[in-house]
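Notes, Module 5: Reading structure tokens.

Key idea: the token line is not a picture. It is a compressed description, and you learn to read it the same way you learned to read a sequence, by spotting repeated patterns. We will look at two proteins. The first is printed below with its tokens.
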Amino acid sequence: MKLVKRTFLTTCICLLCYTQAFAQTKFEREYRVKTNEVPARAIAFINWQTSYGKIRWYYEENFEANAYEGKLKINKQKYSIEFDTLGNLQDIEVELNVKRIDSPVLDEIKQSLSEKFDRYKIIRLQQQFSGNIKSLSSFLQTPSPTDSYVVRYEMTIKGKKNGSRELYEVTFNSAGEVINVSTIVSRNTDNLEY
């Protein structure tokens, strides 16, 4: 009986540790899909907006949930509109230059990164907007600050800590405080990629 309890306890501890490690890693794979493979609800949302020109659709697989993304440019700015697998709007991401972040927020972000990493380099920055469909639709029509949606910053950085270099995704709230840090796991492949 003691052996069964010990085995059960050991299994629970291992599962807990695995879950914690799993939650702090990010795997993402995306590939191009045709418009007819995208849920009708997502297409309807895009068509409901004014004409944006060419939209490229992608299917994104990750640990949390799979999604469809419509990528497009509006006024020379790169946008990514994400939908769940049923076509429900999740969020809108806008590629951003670090210089466009307000100074107090940028100072907080830099301070947080300096505390978490020995050295770091920002590879990519996106501003993420989430909220109800009406407020996000308004945002696409006139991108301006409002309280009707949640704003976050999502950074991909090359960071060094404890002598190890990795790629990380770091998410910040609108004040520049860290919400989440995940190590980006690259997919293994047997093929050479060029």
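Here is the second protein, with the sequence above and the tokens below, as before.
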Amino acid sequence: METLARRIPVVKTTIAGTNDIGRLCVGNSRALIVPMETTDEEYAHLQKRHPFNIPLLRLYKHVPDLGTRVACNDCVALIDPDLDEEIESIISIVLHVRVYRRTIAGLNNVGSLCVINDSGAVVHHEASNTEIDELSKLLRKPVEVGTVNKGNTEFIADGVATNCWAVFCGSETANYERALLESVFRPIKLELPPY
């Protein structure tokens, strides 16, 4: 983490008293949505330490594991079909995205089963061809099935995080898995100045 923090801003925090940040939050370059259970101290810490001053919204009602139920980039959010319309509207307005209710591999937890950025998506290896075709049309980007950590990670999002310039993956990720992630997510090869 120290090496990473010399190149990009890193904010150490907990959310709702846990370290499961990705499971509980959803965001893109426009905003970050955190759960109702985020403590006042955590919320104030995020507001103070967040390096890019993007809006931070704490939900006003309980939504279990929001990060496992939403996958998004700067244009589109794929959401669990069971999320209520109010939360769908919040996601659309706050993140400035088009929202689609989807399943992947027949399951609702699209945030765990799919990782997307503005270049493409990698989805759970059991996604059907129909789901892949539909997602590719919605995203207007390439969608590939993939694994991480030599296939030992059940959910793709448990082992991959990405944005437009970097891909982070589990340390056990094989070269062929890394090659797929790089070909889909197309991270920008930048020599970043120290932060």
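Summary for the second protein:
- The chain has a mean pLDDT of 90.
- Residues 2-185 form a domain with the L-arginine/glycine Amidinotransferase; Chain A fold (CATH 3.75.10.10).
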